[in-house]
Design goal:
It contains 13 helices and 14 strands. By secondary structure, the protein is of the alpha/beta class. The strands form four sheets. A six-stranded mixed sheet has the order 2-1-3-7-10-14, with helices on both faces. Strand 5 and strand 6 form a beta hairpin. Helix 4 runs antiparallel to helix 5 and helix 9 runs parallel beside helix 12. The longest helix is centred in the middle third of the chain and has 14 residues. About 18% of the residues have low confidence.
């Protein structure tokens, strides 16, 4: 889209979002080739009328040089004349280069001049010399691909689109941190020294990312589920995202979606797939279509990874402390001790968990290492990566950075750790940061 047309849309964005009736424009934009059917469906599914208007305007800016005049014509055709005149701005009517009838493209026939055969050698006075039409060409015409290429702005645009999640609400959303440190004697689980360090880091980090952070400490099995239920009952309509962070001991369980489980301080463990179910589209409608992020600092089982040899210049090894501890359950990583008979969330008829990302501190089945003084490897590196890269990088890219750095650590000079994630996000996710302004509605 021409920069001056994009500027007109942005200057009038608030009025357009308030007054635009997107449903009356879909057929026209589809007929004129400005949007595809998939794009129309995406806009329709984006939420309320205003949400659809925001999505439509955001996508319109990326649809080439004819998008703006065609949009004005669609507004006129739909009877939304005040908005058409607002965008028109008092200039001469801008007509899209789309023929509306056959006569518009029918050539004009001129009779050929008649001359005597005896005059063929004389110069013709009725024929004017033909000169090529000079067309201004300051720069080469963009290719079709460049029409749809999104230039990288100096500051990220915080508007929902096909490529990125909308993340400009203020506050951005809720963040629940469950920090289990002291375990009851009958749980047969050691206290998690250093977990408070992790909790403090993540609380500060997500507050800086404009989340409402709530911390709960030393929760039993039923209390964990209660807090998740409370979170699912909140009206998230005015927010763009939701985050759950659990710091606890963990174990391996049978699963059909997300592996692993986290222990309450009384011993029993809540499977991760149950945790995610509280916030899926069925149980929390106000989070439908919005990203739901889960960060699990816990062991995925009892195995210890000794790694394999690589060339010395491939890694910069960090030799963890001699007192590094694990977050594994000190018994067989079996799911026999976890009952699922009373869990309605476990039915296979639930919807696909779209817009969910679960980031694990370790690979399923393996232990996760934690320093009693500086906290866990995973949280320390995650916090550093978010601090240094959230301005410019999306979440999935930053989690790959976390994976790389954690994989270079070694516990007791021998054991390794490999984080990973189950990613069901549909778009790129960029956090809000203090150095970035927010785009008004």
């Amino acid at each position: 889209m021409d920069p001056k047309h994009r500027s007109v849309l942005q200057r009038n964005r608030v009025t357009l979002v308030v007054d635009l009736k997107p449903s009356e424009l879909y057929d026209g934009l589809l007929e004129k080739g400005i949007f595809t059917q998939d794009m129309i469906d995406e806009i329709k599914n984006s939420g309320t009328r205003r949400d659809q208007a925001r999505q439509l305007l955001c996508d319109l800016e990326k649809r080439g040089s004819q998008a703006f005049p065609c949009f004005i014509q669609c507004l006129r055709d739909a009877g939304q004349l005040p908005l058409a005149e607002l965008l028109h701005g008092g200039e001469a009517p801008v007509q899209p280069l789309v023929p509306t009838a056959l006569e518009d493209i029918r050539p004009v026939l001129q009779p050929l001049p008649v001359s005597s055969p005896m005059n063929v050698d004389r110069p013709r006075k009725d024929i004017a010399p033909i000169y090529p039409i000079q067309r201004p060409s300051d720069s080469p015409s963009p290719s079709p691909e460049s029409e749809y290429r999104i230039p990288r702005p100096p500051r990220r645009t915080r508007k929902d689109s096909i490529q990125t999640y909308k993340m400009d609400a203020s506050p951005c959303g809720h963040c629940l941190i469950i920090n289990n440190v002291k375990f009851e004697p009958n749980a047969d689980l050691s206290d998690r020294k250093g977990s408070n360090v992790d909790c403090d880091k993540l609380e500060k980090r997500f507050k800086s990312l404009n989340f409402i952070v709530r911390v709960k400490t030393n929760l039993r099995y039923k209390q964990i589920r209660h807090e998740l239920c409370v979170l699912s009952k909140i009206d998230h309509s005015q927010f763009d995202c939701c985050v759950v962070i659990i710091l606890s001991h963990g174990t391996e369980v049978n699963h059909n979606r997300f592996p692993g489980a986290v222990h309450g301080v009384d011993g029993p463990a809540v499977p991760v797939q149950f945790i995610t179910n509280y916030l899926n589209g069925q149980h929390c409608p106000s989070l439908q279509g919005k990203p739901k992020l889960f960060f699990i600092q816990a062991c995925g089982g009892g195995e210890k990874d000794t790694g394999f040899e690589v060339s010395p210049d491939e890694v910069e090894p960090y030799m963890g402390g001699a007192d590094d501890q694990t977050d594994a359950m000190p018994m067989s990583s079996s799911s026999d001790s976890i009952s699922t008979s009373d869990e309605p969330d476990a039915r296979a008829t639930l919807p696909t968990p779209s817009d969910i990302l679960v980031s694990y501190s370790t690979f399923p089945g393996f232990v996760s290492w934690r320093d009693p003084l500086s906290g866990s490897w995973y949280v320390e590196i995650l916090d550093n990566i978010l601090e240094e890269n959230a301005d410019a990088n999306d979440l999935v890219t930053m989690l790959m950075m976390v994976n790389n750095e954690v994989s270079q650590n070694s516990a007791k000079g021998l054991y390794k750790q490999m984080p990973g994630s189950f990613n069901f996000l549909r778009k790129l996710l960029y956090f809000q940061t203090q150095s970035q302004g927010q785009t008004p509605a």
